[in-house]
């Protein structure tokens, strides 16, 4: 008989979360650790990471921190090697680290911004966004998969976005294109890795209040156009992603692979009232 305490159990699982010092990565780390997982939190921002690891340890949670940049393959190899050395295995990977592509071609008042027009997107911004959002996911999976194959399976959860499946007026083009690529990585990896008992899925948030883009969505004026377009008339908090994260890490999702769990308050459905 399926009981919730076993169906959604993550106790004892060895998990790695990238981009874990703030936002969605931190919320996922908190949810996993609070439910008994052994969580290795990774981020390139050492000071923030150490502060959050210390805070969660003070709460009695099993967490450790490893400073790593997802654009650096050797950092990622070290991250996963250290995790397996410490915990004996690698059960769940949350490939969460990502950056913003800046604002879209429309300002918050829906006027056009010539500085963010397609032809004016800086080449270095485009490269930086793709190196982190696409290259970082690719490199994270490459470093994690051999460990999971050798132990007979695991769960990979990628933070994607509803931008992977729709156009955006207020979100930078480089970000939208990068998340579309991430969406295909999820599906491609899922079909290849299914025979190895490795599930690959994604959480696809709508607009969320995080530090991404300099934390611009913490500003009520910047949030306003997104809130107007959402049927719930609010945008997500990182904590709104915790349920999906626990589902995709737990036995409840054992027969689920290659999907995006959309957590957007109905944003994709369109305007209600």
Query: Helices and strands, in N-to-C order?
Result: HEHEHEHEHHEHEHHHE
Which architecture would the CATH scheme give at its second level?
3-Layer(aba) Sandwich
| CATH superfamily descriptor | NAD(P)-binding Rossmann-like Domain
Largest sheet: 7 strands, parallel
Unreliable stretches (pLDDT < 50, length at least 5) are none
Ordered list of secondary-structure elements with their pairings:
Blueprint: H1 4-7, E1 14-18, H2 23-34, E2 38-43, H3 46-58, E3 63-67, H4 73-87, E4 92-95, H5 123-133, H6 135-151, E5 154-159, H7 173-193, E6 198-205, H8 212-215, H9 220-229, H10 242-249, E7 260-263
Parallel strand pairs: 1-2, 1-4, 2-3, 4-5, 5-6, 6-7
Helix pairs in contact: 2-10, 4-6, 5-7
What keyword list fits this structure?
single chain, 273 residues, alpha/beta, Rossmann fold, seven-stranded parallel beta sheet, 10 helices, globular
Folded structure, characterized:
The protein has helices at residues 4-7, 23-34, 46-58, 73-87, 123-133, 135-151, 173-193, 212-215, 220-229, 242-249; strands at residues 14-18, 38-43, 63-67, 92-95, 154-159, 198-205, 260-263. It has 273 residues and is α/β, with parallel strands linked by helices. It has one domain: Rossmann fold. Strand 1 (14-18), helix 2 and strand 2 (38-43) form a beta-alpha-beta unit. The longest helix has 21 residues, at 173-193. The model has no long low-confidence stretch (mean pLDDT 96).
């Amino acid at each position: 008989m399926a009981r919730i305490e076993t169906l959604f159990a993550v106790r004892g699982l060895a998990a790695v979360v990238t981009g874990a010092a703030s936002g969605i990565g931190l919320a996922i780390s908190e949810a996993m650790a609070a439910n008994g997982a052994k969580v290795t939190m990774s981020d390139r921002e050492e000071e923030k990471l150490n502060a959050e690891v210390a805070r969660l340890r003070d709460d009695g949670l099993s967490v450790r921190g490893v400073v790593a940049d997802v654009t650096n393959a050797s950092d990622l190899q070290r991250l996963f090697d250290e995790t397996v050395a410490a915990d004996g295995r690698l059960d769940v990977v949350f490939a969460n680290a990502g950056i913003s592509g800046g604002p879209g071609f429309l300002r918050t008042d829906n006027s056009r911004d010539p500085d963010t027009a397609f032809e004016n997107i800086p080449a270095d911004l485009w490269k930086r966004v793709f190196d982190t959002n696409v290259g970082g996911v690719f490199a994270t999976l490459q470093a994690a998969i051999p460990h999971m194959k050798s132990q007979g399976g695991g769960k990979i959860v990628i933070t994607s976005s509803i931008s992977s499946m729709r156009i955006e007026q207020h979100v930078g083009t480089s970000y939208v294109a990068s998340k579309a690529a991430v969406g295909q990585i999820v599906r491609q990896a899922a079909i290849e890795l299914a025979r190895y008992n490795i599930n690959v899925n994604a959480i696809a948030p709508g607009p969320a209040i995080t530090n991404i883009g300099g934390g611009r969505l913490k500003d009520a004026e910047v949030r306003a156009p997104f809130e107007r377009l959402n049927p719930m008339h609010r945008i997500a908090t990182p904590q709104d992603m915790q349920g999906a994260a626990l589902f995709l890490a737990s036995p409840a999702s054992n027969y689920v692979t290659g999907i995006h769990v959309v957590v957007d308050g109905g944003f994709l459905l369109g305007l209600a009232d």
